[in-house]
Amino acid sequence: MDRVKLYQNDLQNIADGAVSNTSKKTIRLHNEPIIWCSNYQITGEGGVLAY
Q1: Predicted pLDDT at 17
Q2: Beta carbons of 5 and 31 less than 8 angstroms apart
Q3: Contact 36, 51 (CB under 8 A)
Q4: Rounded CA separation 39/9 (Å)
Q5: What local confidence, expressed as pLDDT, does residue 48 receive?
Q6: Exposed, middle or buried by CB within 10 Å (0-12, 13-18, 19+), for 23?
Q7: pLDDT at 2
């Protein structure tokens, strides 16, 4: 997926790309994603969200 925005009550995210793995229940974020959780902002080269 390209240009991804994820919204949940306690978590928000934007990323240039994402790949979902339903068997592992993860979403891998690419190209410097930004994640907001509560009062925190998390940035990096990539990231993995588990659900």
Answers
A1: 94
A2: no
A3: no
A4: 13
A5: 95
A6: exposed
A7: 85
Question: pLDDT by residue (tens digit) across 11-50?
Answer: 999 999 999 999 999 999 999 999 999 899 999 999 999 9
User: DSSP string of 7-49?
Assistant: EETTEEEEEEEEEEETTTTEEEEESS-EEEETTEEEE-S-EEE
**CA 44, 50, 51: angle at the middle one, nearest 5?**
140
Nearest to 21 by CA among 5, 7, 1: 1
Phi first, then psi: give them for residue 34, nearest 5 degrees: -125, 130
Sign of the CA dihedral running 37, 29, 6, 32? positive
